[in-house]
Amino acid sequence: MIEFVAAHGGRAHIPTQRDRAVQRTVEPTLYRRRNLVERFFCKLKHFRRVATRFDKLARNFLAAVLLASARLWLRSL
Q1: Rounded distance, CA 18 to CA 73, Å?
Q2: Are 11 and 5 in contact (CB under 8 A)?
Q3: Can you say how many angstroms the Cα of residue 2 is from the centroid of all Cα atoms in its chain?
Q4: In whole angstroms, what is the distance from residue 75 CA to residue 77 CA?
Q5: Are 64 and 47 in contact (CB under 8 A)?
Q6: Is the dihedral of CA 59, 60, 61, 65 positive or negative?
Q7: What is the number of other CB atoms lying within 10 angstroms of the CB of residue 11?
Q8: Taking each helix axis from N to C terminus, what angle separates 58-76 and 28-44, rounded to the nearest 10 degrees?
Q9: Which among 52, 44, 48 has a CA at the least distance from the CA of 68?
């Protein structure tokens, strides 16, 4: 996976397991930001309409994602 990301011009910020022989270093601030994004998507999947994708049209699904995102954002304030 890391080679795939590098081949497309990106940098992977995926830490390794502790039991791996080759350990990769990850910058702590980048990992914190990545973790925030992952937690946001996890919270977004708690909305049934987004998780099951009831909507047939992409624009309706995008509207549901935007509404759920706005609700999560307002809750964090």
Answers
A1: 34
A2: yes
A3: 16
A4: 6
A5: yes
A6: positive
A7: 9
A8: 120
A9: 44
